[in-house]
Amino acid sequence: MALLVLFSTVSFTVEKHFCGDVLVDISVFSEVQKCGMEMDAAEQPSMTKKSCCKDTTDVIKGQDELTVKTFDDIEFEQQVFLVAFSHTYFDLFEDLTEREILHKDYSPPNLVYDIQVRDQVFLI
After folding, report:
1. Does pTM top 0.85 for this prediction?
2. Which residues of 70-80 are buried (b: 16+ CB within 10 A; e: fewer)?
3. CA 90, CA 58: separation in Å to the nearest integer?
4. The pairing of beta strand 12-19 with beta strand 22-27
5. Calpha distance 62→5 (Å, rounded)
């Protein structure tokens, strides 16, 4: 639940550099690497041709406001369900080491064998 809240409130930008129609680089946390084809106006002032490269920036915004609800804000039926569910869920798991073993001091009786069946000797 905490990860869901964290990821829903995080905002970030995705920068993309295209050279023509070909995607050259994508960056989330740093600047994109240029392909070296873009022209600076200071280097070539006489050229009026547009560069084939373009940069796009996609901004993905997270939630700005979170509503915090308390247990008293939800309806009575939902409160009853949550209490019943949590009670049955926590009682579902029992520690097996706490169980008392009733027969730990009990020694089994001596087994009495039927000698005729064991030796397979029958009177005919």
Report:
1. no
2. eeeeeeeeeee
3. 45
4. antiparallel
5. 10
102/97: higher pLDDT: 102
Over the Cα atoms of the chain, what is R_g? Answer: 38
- Element housing 5 (H / E): helix 2-9
Across 40-49, 85-94, 109-118, least confident range: 40-49
Given a contact cutoff of 8 angstroms between Cβ atoms, the answer to whether 18 and 37 are in contact is no
Q: Is the dihedral of CA 87, 90, 91, 92 positive or negative?
A: positive
- Which residues lie closer than 8 Å to 56 by C-beta, 6 or more apart? 15, 16, 18
Secondary element (H or E) of residue 13: strand 12-19
